[in-house]
Design goal:
By secondary structure, the protein is an all-alpha fold. It has helices at 2-30, 32-35, 37-42, 48-56, 66-94, 99-125, 129-148, 157-181, 184-193, 197-216, 225-244.
């Protein structure tokens, strides 16, 4: 009986996951005009003002979803890193006494531009934000390592800070995108497959709450009412099935 119920839940939960994922993304996009998606996204980063000013400086940000904003931010990191590498190459000619740390920095920024950023862009385009986050985190580390290599006054302090901070912002946005993709239903499926229906029930309950929260966020007429109701109600059904397994 329990095996039959488990199969019923998994059969139900896969289309439910797809519907929930599409609904969450659509909910975010639809509300972007009213709530300003850039501002809402940047609230999830440690450098809000930098995030907002950077994204708004790129025209295509106004039409982007969270994935698109992540790609824009990674492009900004690439531009900042490219500017810094050019400055490093100039400093190598002007400051022979700083040749050792500058060479280290040149290597660090070459890694950002040839490895970390391409990795992040490719991962985002393939829908793998976790791997993209690794790339942007690595870029932030490279910038910090460059600064630390001077063991004192550095001619790159401002540039390193900009690259570090924009990389951290890009990382935070990719993490937000990852959170959207890895929602409650995959968690519930995994829990059920591991024989933990209580945890699975929590996941389906959370999915119902997400749908209700999306609907409530419009504070009036919503273009997603039917979709929100469908996801909410199927989540409640899935929750009821998992409860029978307890």
């Amino acid at each position: 009986m329990k095996n039959s119920l488990s199969l019923s839940f998994i059969f139900l939960s896969r289309p439910l996951f797809t519907a929930t994922l599409l609904l969450i993304i659509h909910c975010i996009i639809v509300q972007s005009d009213a709530n300003d998606l850039i501002a809402q996204t940047c609230k999830n980063t440690p450098y809000y003002n930098l995030c907002v000013s950077s994204l708004r400086s790129v025209p295509r940000s106004s039409r982007a979803d969270v994935q698109g904003l992540a790609l824009v931010m990674v492009d900004i990191v690439r531009a900042k890193a490219s500017t810094t590498l050019k400055f490093i190459n100039q400093e190598l000619k002007r400051s022979p006494k700083l040749r050792r740390p500058l060479r280290f920095c040149a290597s660090s920024y070459d890694a950002i531009l040839t490895a970390d950023i391409p990795e992040a862009i490719e991962a985002l385009q393939k829908g793998d934000p976790k791997f993209a986050e690794n790339g942007t985190n690595d870029a932030a580390v490279e910038a910090s390592s460059c600064e630390d290599s001077f063991h004192g006054k550095s001619p790159l302090t401002k540039l390193n800070k900009v690259v570090h901070d924009t990389s951290v912002v890009a990382s935070a946005i990719t993490r937000l995108y990852d959170a959207i993709l890895t929602a409650d239903i995959p968690e519930a499926i995994e829990a059920l497959q591991k024989g933990d229906p209580k945890f699975a029930e929590n996941g389906t309950n959370d999915a119902a709450v997400e749908a209700s929260s999306c609907e409530d966020s419009f504070q009036g007429k919503s273009p997603l009412t039917k979709l929100n109701k469908a996801v909410h109600d199927t989540s409640v059904v899935a929750s009821a099935i998992t409860r029978l397994l307890l």
